[in-house]
Amino acid sequence: MTDKEKMLQILDFILNRSTYGDLEVIQEAIKRRTRDIRAGIAGIDVREIARHTAESIQKQIRSADEVNHMIRRFVRELITQQQPDISEKQLESLLDRCLPAPEGNDIESTGNDEKSGSIEERFPPDMIQSMLVQFIDYSLGRMDEDEKKNLAPDWQMRYWNTFSAGLKKLLSNLLKGKISEGSFWEEYKNK
């Protein structure tokens, strides 16, 4: 069956056989599809992409944290082997100087640190877009319960702290109803 034939069947159903309840469901589906098209993401399941991206980010963060802890333990052992009488305070100070946290890679960074650069410089565009979609969907009450369960408990704060000041202002305007979602995505794309 061609797309045109499918569309004709749908139209026939809407015009000749649908109930008031059916029309409400169809109307909501049209609103959602229109919103997705305005956001420039037509034909793509953004929620699924956002969910997979968030899971991937969380796995990468956990892996990076595990590697950092492993390196820190290894260096700690090397130092204590060479200097067995070093105090815990001196050891921690030395470890902090030798193994500083990598700048610009921490998702909890505010995004305003000049050394780390803006979010646009630190993360790939598709990751930023996925983070924005999740943040907006959650804030507007559109996020599925299953998706909420797959996210870290404090993910909203982590995302918010990652966004640049300009992006935070744009998000605030959207969430306060000062701009439409379509306007938000247009302004975001033009940055």
Describe the structure.
With 191 residues, the protein is an all-alpha fold. It has one domain. Helix 3 crosses helix 6 and helix 9 packs antiparallel against helix 10.
Note the topology.
Blueprint: H1 3-17, H2 20-38, H3 46-82, H4 88-98, H5 119-122, H6 125-139, H7 145-149, H8 155-162, H9 165-175, H10 181-189
Helix pairs in contact: 3-6, 9-10
Strand content: under 5%
The structural class is mainly alpha
User: Largest sheet at a glance?
Assistant: none
Termini separation: 43 Å
Order of helical and strand elements: HHHHHHHHHH
Shape: elongated
Throw out a few tags for this protein:
191 residues, mainly alpha, 0% strand
Structure summary:
It is built from 10 helices and no strands.
